[in-house]
Specification:
7 strands; 5-stranded mixed sheet; 14 helices; Heat Shock Protein 90; Rhopdopsin 7-helix transmembrane proteins
Amino acid sequence: MQGLTEMPYRTDIAHQSDVTGLFYCGAVAVLFFFVSILYLKKRERIYLFYTLFLLCSLVYGFINIKSATWMGDLFSGFFSGNRRIIEPVTLLAFSAYIFFAVELVDLRTQSQKVTRIFHIWGIACMLYAITYFVCYPAIVEYSSYIFLAVRVIIFSLSAYFLTWMLIHIQSPVKGPFVLGSLAYFVGAVVASLRFSFNDLPVPWLYNATAPTYFEAGILVETLFFALALGQRFVHLIEEKQLAQERHIEQLDRNRRLINEMNKQLEQKVKEREEEIIWAQDELNKEEQKRLKAEFAIEMAKSEMLARTLQINPHFLFNCLNSITYLIQSGQNKTAIEYLVVFSRFIRLVLETSQKQVIPIFDELTLIEKYLKLEKNRFDDGFSYRINGMENPSLKGIMVPPMLFHPVVENAVWHGLMNSPAKNKEIAVDVALSGPVLTITIIDNGVGWESNGHGMVAGKSGERLGLSLTKERIKLYNYSFSDRIDFDINKRSQEGRAGTKATFTITLSPPVTEIN
């Protein structure tokens, strides 16, 4: 695939044609001028590499031309017949051709491996050209052998990769590229034979010089490459137009979709406005009916929730009865405030009930809202506190939802409400120490065995609550790496009345405390 030519010192100057050389230099110079303008305008690598190829080909023409030229005069005849630079110029032209081929057929998108090989090949040709120029005085006696060895390698690789590209490459410019490359290589092969052998049985081969054959191949190649560049340009324009058409079609589809969505949205907004107007009219006319309607809805939700989550139905119904009482007694503002707190509690229960585990911070938040509801419902008949809830490390610890609720509920209903104590208290203490998190629920009520109201020795529903809690803990310990242990004791053993329930969570891996 090489720009191959005869070695300068073997060139038969007497047989060179000035007309052919001048025509070649003129044609290549004109094409070089136009491609250079294209590169300066578009700044694309494909035009840069082709410009370099044409420049080296033009220098090759000036080296082998016999007539005096302005370039020869300008450089005091440095180029004319210079044996030292003709081989480097030829190899540099071939190196530029390799990089140009990669860009022309868009080889990167089709084979990264072959693209890397072409880059290495092009760089190797440049290094050979530089080495040849620098070491020329030392290798001049062996230049013919070097010439033949390099051509054998280059022609073999060129034939292989050109065949590979013909079979595997998909490109709209593959045809002109292959034909131009064939013309380039046929000219190079003929020129190499003409240069290397003086006794071939083909007399007509010696009617022209080796550079003449090579230059003819380059001229034919430039015609096909110009056609390939033109086809590439047309293909890029067509792709751009197609992309624009697709973009316009997509914009049209999006516009139609947006218009349709806007119409639907307008319809929904209109319907919503009508609903809001109707609701406002109803609120202005029958405030009590609105509260009762909301109350009925919350009652239905609470009944379903009680069955699903096993929340004590008495708690739900008592809360709703309290709201009913407030509404019937005309305490609408208080009823609304109580209903808001109750609704938030229910919403939090619904949000957490759909999950297998939740952050312990959310579980403590749910307990806090539950205690607030109970305290308000019993006219501040007891006080509560939750210590350690503000620890930011709790958000990374997961527990089953509603894990603490049965214990807290029994502490309120069967511990505090049956207690004659004046200052009824319930405390939830949260302590994180290394890999162990402890949650302690303490009340100063009658104790879990007193009067048969405790969770162990009390009613079947209460025993069921404790049993379900233990079953959930057992299932959690089986499914997760963390471990939960549960224990409940009479505080009377500690010299005080009431009940103490302890949840111990062993974390794996331990949670790093956040200061």
